[in-house]
Structure formats: structure tokens, C-alpha cells
Amino acid sequence: LEDESQRGGENIGETAEVADDDDEMIPKIFRLLEVKPSTILRLDTTAIDTLNVVAPVEARAGKLPLSLFGWLMRNSATSMGSRLMRQWLLQPSTDMEVVTGRHMALEVFVESPMLRDAMYSEVLRPCPDMDRLCRRLQCHSASLRELALLMTFVHTVATCVKVLHTMCLDAGTPSCSAGDSELAVCKRLLVDDYMYPLEEMRSMMGNLVTLIEATIDTTEDNEFVIRAEFDDELLVLAESRQKTRKAITAEYNKVSSRHGWSEKVCKCELHASYGFVMRVSRKEDKPVRDDGKLTIVQTSKDGVRFVSETFATLSAQYKEISRAYEVRQRALHKKLIETVESYLPLIDDAKELLARLDIFCAWGKTISASRLPFCRPEMTPMQAGGDESINSTTPASQGGTDTVSEFTLIDVWHPLVEARTGNYKSNNVKLERQPNNITNNNKPSRNAMIITGPNMGGKSTLMRSVGCATVLAQAGCFAPASSAKIPMRDSVQCRIGATDYMSQGVSTFMVEMLETSSILATATHNSLVIVDELGRGTSTFDGFGLAWAVAHHLACATQCFMLFSTHFHELTDLAEESKGVVEDDGRVIPPARN
Fold first, then answer.
1. Helix, strand or coil for residue 306?
2. Spacing of C-alpha 486 from chain mean position
3. Which residue from 521, 583, 587, 579 is spatially nearest to 554, judged by alpha carbons?
4. From CA 126, how far away is CA 446, in angstroms rounded?
5. Mean pLDDT of the chain
């Protein structure tokens, strides 16, 4: 899969290069980044929908959240932070270093309310939407007002550095040593990974601020223009235009004084079609019609518009000078965009760091305000090796481990259910898998859980809460539980619910079988599989046979961590085929077969 992705990336790169050679006007609006599929937790559409990771349309502010993303994003202060948060939830990481780094940064924001408040009010709230601005720059369509926002962004970066320095360094965070507290180590990571890089980027963007301050100016009407002093040709045109404008005003005053009109009676205005004209009401138009030196250009409900010969000449001159002035403004504007575009890689890196800080700040607020507990999960590496029947293996040389893989959640709860009920009853889940298909007689593997119980008893909610905790933990958030030990998973796969696709000729049972087939074909011993009431779409006898075969294969052959709920109570006899059967609270947990 990685080889195919690499070949596809090379083909895309060749296509982009040819397009650039053929047409220089095509904006370079895409960057190709190397992403290894093995570093991303696989979530298919079924798993995303089942675990409510994101919703097609998120609930509006003040309404109950419809997804994990909608629940977590409500405290986000920036649009770029919300977009990155959605990406993290849809593509959780399988890299231990990345996930641990996110957890450490988040812990600082959870434990430091002053840092959260300062970051939110002084840094994130004033920060403009740099994703949108960068896209406009890449397409060469950014306005001067938007370019001026770059100064706000650079000042925001400087303020962020100041806040991190005050809250992390001035608060007494020493260099990392063996005696440091966990929070001090986390603060040091925040300083090294965020403050120092942002400080360096701020110094490198100093010339950008100087350029914008020297180039962009605001008019009395709060319009953004290129400063006339920036270009000699533009300065000459600006002075000529101003001189002509004064001459127009002088001619207007001359005509008004000759007829005894005040400013309320006769007005000087810029018309879209006729340029500068004078206007009086229709009640005052008799002196205009009697004066042979004045020419009426328009009569309408709001009055009579007229000009003198000198006034018309000056108006034409002003229009010609203004046209040349605007052409020069656009040329300088284009050059300014091309110059600012050279800073895009630096701006991209800076906005990425600010977006991450926005995520940590939002998650820290959500965790601190929660009624039920969150915990920083203890993440362990994927288990190495495996049986030949397993679809893929993770050798120890590639980050796997030969130790026991433990999956423990104490008092785990579902965030979306808790938001609606307010009296959620937490659950405990404990699974483990012995390495390399070796079962310890004293402590056998417990890698699968068969859950039985009545309808509306909470079976699906329990399984979904485990899936949500796994996704959140590998996305970098804390787990909704009082204690959590989670081994890194390469995928979370679900088979829950009953649906059909009539327009495609796919029945409920066919959907069930297609999803189950996908799980059997792609699940590995490092996967988390959630199956809810498999076999409902056919007869009782056939449905039980399917449920038995699938549960047996996943638990004993694939040996993945599996949660399997069913109304077939006979399925609990599956545990009798394996040694070391453990029954806990009515849940039968078969170990991996020897």
C-alpha cells in the first residue's frame, strides 16, 4: 500500500510539474506531503458513522452536539484550529512519539487555567483565519485589507511567544532532569516544540511586517491603498489627482457663489457615469436653465445634475488621472502579493503551530469543565509478530513489542450520551493479549469480550464508548475515563446497526455481510473490532452460525481486541473451547487459542 501511494504521489508530482511548464498563470495552490498510511489509524466510513466522529452537519451553538468533533470544537477560537481538529479526529496517529507529544502538551493546558485564559483571549481570539488568507495568496486574489491582516498575524505570533514565555519559563520551568515533575517536563516540551520555533519564525517575519507597514495605507474612508510615497510614479499621479480635485472644488465654489447657493442647496458629487457633477433640487433648477454657461447632464427625481465647461474639463482630467492611478495601484498590488507569497512556507508553519495550540486550549477547557473524569491515557506500542493467519504483523524492529498487550479502561463513559442524560453509569473494560500467540497458564489471554443483555441495556453504548476512547486517545486527547491503558491500534472497525441501500440493490443482510467481510479481510492482531448483534438479518439458526464463526475467527485466529454483543446466549459457549475462560459481570471473555 505504501509503495502504491509513493508511485501515485510521483505521478501527481509529474502532472503538477507539466501543468506549471505549460501555463505559468496556473497558481501553485497545492503542496505534496509524504504521509505513510501505517502512521494513521484506519477508520472507514462505517466506523466514523458508528462512533459519531464527525456529523454531516454539526449542531449549531447552543444545541446538543451530534459528534465528537462537534462536542470538542465548541471551545475552539479559530477556524484553522477547528479544521485541524477535525483532521486529527478523522486521522488519529499510530506514532507513539506524536501521540505522547500531544498528550504532554494537552496536560499543560489542562493543569494551567491561567495559560488557557491568556492563550484564548490574547492570542487565539485576535488571530485571523490564515488558512483562507493563504489560499487567497496562492491564487493571487488577496486584497490589501487581507494583506494587512498579516501584520495582525505576526503580532499574534509575538504575543503567543510572550504568553508561553511568561507561563512556562518565567513560572520556573527548569531544564529537563531526572528529578523534574511530570508537569515541568510537559512545559519544557511545550517550550521546545512551540515557543522556540514560533520565536524564530517571528524574527524571520520581521521584514514582512516592515514591508507591509511601508506599503499599505488607509484612507479617510477606511479603504486600504498602496502608500503613494512607496513609488515615485504613484506619488506623481497621487499629487496630480489631488491637485485636480482641489481645482474641481474651487470651480464648484465659484459657481455656487455666483448664484448664491449654499452647500445644502448645491452639492458636488461623483457620479458613476458622468464623473464629477453639481446637483440642485428640481425646485432650484431655474437659475441653472437660465445660465448659458451651465450644461444640464441629467434630470431625475433627486434633482438636476449639471456642469460648467471648466468643471467638465477638470472632471475628465480627474477621471484620466484616476484611471492611471488605479492601474499603477494594481501593478504594485500584484508585485506585493508576489513578494508576500515567498513567505507562505513560513506562514504555513506558524499557523500550524497556532492551530495546534488552539486545539489543546479547546480540549483543555472541555476536560476541565467535564462533570465526569478524563485521564491522560497510558499508551503502549503495538504488539509485534503474530500468527501466520493474521493479515499483517508489526515486527519489533518497526516499533512493535513482545510484551503483554493490555487494554484497560476504568469508569469509561460516552461523551455524547453523557451530554444528553447527565446521569451516565460508567463501565470497566479490561482486555489483554499474550505476545506471539503464547498463553500463560496462570494468566491467559483475554482479547475478546462477548456481551449479552436485554435491549436498551447499554451494550452498544459500552462498545461505542470504548471505540471513542481509543480514537480520542490516538488523536491526542485525553480518554473519557478515570484510568486508561491503551495499546496503539492500527484500525478501529465496526459492524453496528441495520441499514440497506435500496437504490443500489443492497439489502440489510447484504450490508451486514459486506461490512463483516471487510473486517475479516483487513483486521489484524493490532486492531480493535466492535460487532453488535451480528446475524439479525437472516434466520435464527443461520444467524447464530454466522455469529459463532465470525466471533471465533476474530478471537482465536486474528486475535484482535474484540467487543461482540449478541442476543444469542448460546454464543457464550464459545469460551468453553479455549483454556482460561474468565467471566466478569456477565461478560464471557474467551482467550486466544493455543
1. strand
2. 25
3. 521
4. 51
5. 82
**Residue-level pLDDT at 170:** 62
- The terminus-to-terminus CA distance of the chain in angstroms comes to 31
pLDDT tops 80 at residue 460: yes
Where do runs of H (alpha helix) occur along 192-231?
196-204, 206-215
The Cα 422–Cα 196 span in angstroms is 42
Share of the chain above pLDDT 70, in %: 85
Burial class (CB in 10 A: 0-12, 13-18, 19+), 23: exposed
DSSP states of 111-178: H-HHHHHHIIIIIITT---HHHHHHHHHTT---HHHHHHHHHHHHHHHHHHHHHIIIIITTT-----T
327: pLDDT strictly greater than 90: yes
585 exposure class (CB count in 10 Å sphere: 0-12, 13-18, 19+): exposed
Q: What is the DSSP letter of 424?
A: -
Distance CA 78, CA 360 (A): 12
Residue (of 153, 164, 78, 106) closest to 348 by Cα position: 153
pLDDT tens digits, one per residue of 103-129: 999 999 998 889 999 999 999 998 999
Enter the C-alpha cell of residue 321.
Answer: 488621472
The number of residues in the chain equals 594
Angstrom CA distances, 259 to 276, 298, 444, stand at 19, 20, 108
pLDDT digits (tens, 9 = 90+) for 139-171: 888 889 989 899 999 999 999 999 988 888 765
Which residue, 165, 113, 197, 105, is CA-closest to 173?
165
Instruction: Quote the cell numbers at residue 564.
Output: 461482540
Does this model's pTM top 0.85? My answer is no
Q: Give the CA-trace dihedral at 531, 536, 539, 543, to 10 degrees.
A: 10
